[in-house]
Write a structure and sequence with these properties.
Radius of gyration: 26 Å
CATH architecture of the largest domain: 3-Layer(aba) Sandwich
Oligomer: single chain
Helix content: 40-55%
Number of helices: 12
CATH class of the largest domain: Alpha Beta
Strand order of the largest sheet: 2-1-3-4-5-11
CATH superfamily of the largest domain: Response regulator
Length: 344
């Protein structure tokens, strides 16, 4: 007989002196096998430590009951909440998850996509890395009609379903709020313009300035990797500008917090000298002093919607290729870091 970890239906059949076909039907609860026989077979299988080989069964059905998820990083509360929303929906539908993260690098994202493809996942939910500049590594999924949904970091011209927020509107509202507080020299610290989220937030910044008759100054535009170090670096750039900006829109909360901390080290007051608005409403935004004005949107809801669309497609209820873009709600959460006038 095989080792305990490798018990097969043939081992059970031999011990019980019945056919392997009977064992297989019983373990799959086929009513053609009597309830009494099924019970005996299940008891014997449990005693021997038999494990059902769902992988082999799923291969025969051309289905793995597995969803692949590619995320760009693991450290933010936003990403954690997205995964929570995805997991809730997929678990209820009987699917397992394989989670891969690109560490903000296209090269790793390509490896993740290839790995998930060869693991025969039934569908993929993905958010693009910082430097991803084409989607050719996702083509194998499209060519095999494996549903693919992007969230948050997306390529807006792709035909796949996308779940996003209105980043342009968020950027515009953040700047309008700063202007309403009396700010006249507003800097922006943001990410690569090839990523939709940062490009749209920048466009909102630019247009809000234009609509209020304010000049767009190249010196006030800082594009970096939006890391902790980037926040420190941006703060030192801003405090040395002449004249120094009296407000800053930092399009990532973690970066905004380190931006504020560095400015305070040099005796610059927030918001009296520089008002600051962040983005994402990460938990850290409530810990910094003063608390950070930021844009809130539900990562959990984004995950839920993306997973629901994917599962619905797999169940034959919808076709994700017939959908385009799903936009969820977002709002500006006003806290002390931007309140120059004291008015919300």
């Amino acid at each position: 007989m095989s080792n305990k970890d490798d018990i097969t239906i043939y081992d059970i059949a031999r011990i019980m002196d019945i056919s392997s076909a009977t064992v297989s039907r019983a373990l799959n609860n086929n009513p053609a096998i009597s309830a009494e026989t099924r019970k005996k077979i299940h008891e014997t299988a449990k005693k021997l430590g038999y494990r059902h080989n769902s992988f082999a069964g799923n291969l025969r059905k051309q289905k793995s009951n597995t969803i692949g998820v590619i995320i760009h990083e693991l450290v933010s509360s936003f990403t954690t909440s997205v995964l929570g929303g995805i997991e809730k929906v997929t678990t209820e539908a009987g699917y397992d998850l394989i989670i891969a993260h690109s560490s903000e690098k296209m090269s790793k994202e390509i490896k993740n996509a290839n790995n998930l493809f060869h693991k025969r996942v039934d569908g993929v939910i993905a958010s693009l890395a910082f430097d991803t500049n084409d989607l050719s590594h996702f083509e194998p999924f499209n060519s095999k009609n494996i549903p693919l949904i992007f969230f948050d970091r997306v390529e807006e011209n792709s035909e796949n379903t996308k779940v996003i927020i209105d980043n342009y509107k968020c950027g515009y509202l953040a700047i309008q709020h700063l202007i309403n507080q009396g700010s006249k020299r507003i800097a922006i610290v943001t990410g690569t313009q090839q990523r939709n989220v940062y490009n749209k937030r920048f466009q909102g910044y630019r247009d809000a300035l234009f609509d209020n008759g304010m000049e767009l100054k190249d010196d006030y535009i800082i594009i970096n990797e939006l890391s902790e170090a980037s926040g420190v670096e941006a703060a030192n750039i801003v405090r040395n500008l002449k004249p120094m900006p009296d407000a800053a829109f930092v399009t990532n909360d973690l970066t905004a917090v380190f931006f504020i901390k560095e400015l305070k080290k040099h005796g610059i007051r927030i918001p009296e000298d520089i008002a600051v608005v962040g983005f994402n409403n990460d938990a850290i935004s409530k810990i910094v002093e003063p608390e950070l004005t930021t844009v809130e949107y539900s990562g959990f809801l984004i995950g839920e919607i993306a997973a629901t669309q994917l599962i619905s497609h797999l169940q034959g209820k919808t076709d994700v290729k017939q959908l385009s873009t799903i936009i969820i709600n977002s709002e500006l959460i006003i806290r002390e870091s931007s309140l120059k006038s004291g008015k919300r």
